[in-house]
């Protein structure tokens, strides 16, 4: 067998199948299943052959957590008529495999002999969970027994040349098997379970929905839609896979051609279960093929939470008996009911990925003996977590969720003993969505600490890159004596709806203000206004900004030696601007910026900045007007030329019920637009008069640049009654 990919079905053809399953005795050992059955509709996974030495008697199959090892073990054992030993259900150790087989099939059975001769076999499942349950010493005794039962000591001429024991395990526990076989000089065949291929992923979704339809009473036709309307269902399924692939990959990715780039997420069984649930609809043709970013974020979060809950259940299932036996009988079980929660897992995962010591305070409420057992079990279990790959995270989706959770959870700080936000280094495009789900004020607005503001801006910008937001995507950070807020908004073209332009926004309240917010290098499409201090860069030699950064602060400190301004697209250079009362830049030795892309509004600028200097005006420091700018922008971007040929228009119902409803700032802006006759009403339409708009000093096209002009700020001042 060549070291290449294969299927579990083809693997079964290389192993010695029984004509019939062995007959169990009246006393079957714990975890022993003489005649296992495959899960109905089971989808056979792809395997990668890592090694297949001649005369191998044991086959080790490794897999990440939650990829369906147990279902694969059941399917393989069923296909071969082999018994299945669920090792996590037994107390493994020296002689436990041979003893369980003989005890379950009768002490006169010759089945152990047939295994040793390679004429029959057994599947051992969940070795990692057995390790977790029994400890390392007992695990090694069990592995030695596997080696002996497999016939590894029998001369090859007396034994069939095929593995007769197949062992399923997560990678960290599999190391023990590899090491013991290497120490004994015994060859070991090794394979790994891959994530599903695209075709298998599609088949898995179909099979899952079939099972749900047959199992649920009363019958829900939504779970049978794949059979009732196969063509519309397939179109919706593939569009949904494509949509999520674009979110976790890139906007121009093809799920058909680039599946390998996204299979570690979309080919993951728990992810496919969540997708299948989202496809259980009554009419696939009435469902949007592409979810909005908010809905995609919710779907991703639901997927991740389901995996975390699964890990909590598996951990408690195998540890509860050990904990209970370590404390007096009258000790309440409630003391460990909260253990290995979603929050604890995220804190431990963040520490593990950062190479920091494990946070042990989570188990501090347990009796001393139970605490030692618990921490030893976590140490063995955590490295096999499905979110991890080696020392890091298996996917940026998992990393962003974990970082969002720990940086927003006040309990994590107490348990870790330090600010968990310090673990948040580089984030991806999902962080802003995930963190917006965590903490909220009384009005339902997400709340984040000041130290996460720049991180959220970075994540929001990365999400725009994935969406290829062709029109605009920006962030507005407002720091003042009053409410401190961060607005993230974008307007982009919908691929699915022709020329229709979509608008999305998230608002955050900022807390724990320090008086001088630090902005790291690399910001773009961002507006910052504060009546306190601002630190540009954090120990960086080069502070890069732009395109399209607009900063107004009372005081700015720049410790970088180089200030670089990115111009943006060459056909549409975007101005960046820095304005403040005073600025200290003692280390600054170089400016990398064209005069057309950087404007500095400072009374006494650094000598290198003088070629970019402009005379400040009072409107350039108006934070209140700037606060209203996203609302002005949102209103104008609601008008479309496609709905009324040759005229910019918006539905009255959309403006009144969705855009300005419940928002006093937007209502005051819209009222003034009507008063100035920029907007008029005609039946069910609001019409925008561009000539009247131009009389105010700005036009619809000015919103493409995004920077609020003097005329816009003057108009917004009128809305506040400050003209």
> Roughly how many Å apart are the termini?
82 Å
Count of DSSP H/I helices: 25
Mean pLDDT: 85
Classification by helices and strands: alpha/beta
The value of Rg in angstroms is 31 Å
What overall geometry do the principal axes of the alpha carbons give?
elongated
How much helical structure, as a percent, in the residues? 25-40%
Low-confidence stretches: none
Q: Strand content of the residues, in percent?
A: 15-25%
Number-wise, the strands total: 27
Q: What is the makeup of the main sheet?
A: 10 strands, mixed
TL;DR of this structure?
With 723 residues, this protein is of the alpha/beta class.
Sum up the structure in keywords.
single chain, 19% strand, alpha/beta, ten-stranded mixed sheet, eight-stranded mixed sheet, 723 residues, 25 helices
Describe the protein in words.
This protein is α/β, with parallel strands linked by helices. Helix content is 39%, strand content 19%. The chain is built from 25 helices and 27 strands. Strands 11, 12, 13, 14, 15, 16, 17, 19, 21 and 23 form a 10-stranded mixed sheet that branches. An 8-stranded mixed sheet has the order 1-3-8-4-7-6-5-2, with helices on both faces. Helix 20 packs across helix 22. The longest helix has 33 residues, at 293-325.
């Amino acid at each position: 067998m060549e070291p290449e990919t294969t299927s579990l079905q083809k693997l079964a053809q290389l192993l010695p199948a029984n004509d019939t399953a062995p007959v169990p005795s009246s006393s079957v050992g714990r975890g022993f299943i003489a005649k296992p059955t495959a899960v109905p509709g089971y989808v056979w996974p792809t395997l990668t052959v890592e090694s297949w030495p001649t005369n191998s008697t044991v086959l080790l199959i490794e897999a990440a957590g939650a990829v369906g090892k147990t279902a694969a073990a059941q399917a393989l054992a069923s296909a071969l008529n082999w018994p299945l030993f669920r090792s996590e259900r037994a107390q493994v150790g020296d002689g436990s495999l041979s003893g369980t087989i003989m005890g379950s099939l009768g002490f006169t059975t010759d089945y152990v002999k047939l295994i040793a001769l390679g004429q029959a076999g057994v599947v051992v499942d969940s070795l990692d969970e057995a390790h977790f349950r029994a400890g390392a010493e007992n695990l090694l005794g069990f592995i030695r027994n596997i080696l002996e039962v497999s016939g590894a000591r029998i001369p090859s001429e007396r034994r069939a040349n095929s593995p007769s024991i197949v062992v399923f395990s997560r990678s960290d526990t599999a190391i023990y098997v590899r090491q013991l076989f290497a120490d004994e000089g015994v060859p070991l065949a090794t394979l790994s379970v891959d994530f599903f291929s695209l075709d298998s992923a599609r088949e898995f979704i179909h099979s899952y929905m079939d099972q749900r339809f047959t199992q649920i009473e009363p019958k829900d036709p939504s779970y049978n839609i794949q059979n009732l309307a196969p063509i519309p269902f397939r179109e919706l399924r593939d569009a949904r896979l494509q949509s999520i692939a674009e979110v976790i990959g890139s906007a121009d990715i093809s799920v058909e051609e680039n599946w390998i780039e996204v299979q570690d997420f979309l080919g993951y069984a728990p992810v496919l279960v969540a997708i299948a649930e989202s496809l259980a609809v009554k009419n696939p043709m009435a469902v949007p093929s592409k979810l909005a970013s908010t809905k995609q974020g919710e779907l991703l979060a639901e997927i991740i939470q389901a995996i975390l809950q699964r890990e909590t259940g598996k951990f408690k299932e195998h540890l509860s008996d050990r904990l209970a036996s370590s404390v007096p009988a009258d000790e309440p079980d409630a003391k460990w009911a909260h253990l290995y929660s979603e929050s604890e897992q995220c804190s431990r995962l963040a520490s593990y990925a950062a190479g920091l010591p494990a946070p042990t305070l989570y188990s501090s409420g347990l009796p001393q003996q139970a605490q030692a057992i618990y921490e030893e079990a976590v140490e063995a279990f955590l490295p096999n977590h499905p979110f991890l790959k080696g020392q890091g995270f298996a996917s940026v989706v998992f990393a962003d969720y974990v970082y969002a959770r720990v940086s927003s959870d006040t309990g994590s700080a107490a348990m870790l003993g330090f600010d968990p936000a310090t673990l948040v280094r580089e984030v991806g495009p999902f962080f802003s969505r995930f963190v917006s789900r965590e903490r909220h004020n009384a009005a339902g607005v997400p709340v984040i600490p000041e130290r996460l503001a720049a991180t959220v801006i970075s994540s929001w910008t990365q999400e725009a890159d994935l969406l290829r937001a062709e029109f605009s995507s920006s962030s507005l950070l407002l720091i003042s004596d009053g409410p401190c807020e961060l607005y993230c908004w974008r307007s982009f073209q919908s691929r699915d709806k022709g020329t229709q332009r979509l608008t999305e926004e998230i608002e955050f309240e900022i807390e724990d203000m320090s008086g001088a917010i630090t902005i790291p290098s690399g910001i773009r499409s961002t507006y910052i206004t504060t009546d306190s201090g601002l630190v540009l860069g954090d120990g960086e030699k080069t502070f890069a900004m732009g395109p399209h950064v607009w900063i107004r602060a009372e005081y700015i400190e720049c410790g970088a030696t180089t200030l670089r301004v990115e111009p943006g697209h060459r056909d549409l250079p975007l101005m960046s601007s820095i304005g403040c009362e005073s600025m200290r830049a003692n280390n600054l030795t170089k400016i990398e910026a064209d005069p057309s892309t950087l404007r500095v509004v400072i009374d006494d600028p650094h000598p290198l900045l003088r070629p970019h200097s402009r005379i400040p005006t009072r409107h350039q420091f108006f934070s209140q007007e700037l606060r209203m700018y996203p609302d002005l922008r949102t209103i104008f971007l609601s008008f479309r030329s496609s709905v009324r040929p040759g005229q910019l228009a918006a539905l009255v119902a959309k403006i009144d019920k969705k855009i300005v409803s419940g928002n006093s700032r937007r209502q005051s802006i819209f009222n003034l637009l009507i008063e100035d006759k920029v907007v008029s009403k005609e039946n069910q339409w609001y019409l925008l008069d561009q000539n009247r708009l131009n009389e105010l000093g700005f036009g619809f096209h000015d919103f493409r640049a995004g920077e609020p002009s003097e005329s816009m700020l003057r108009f917004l001042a009128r809305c506040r009654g400050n003209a």
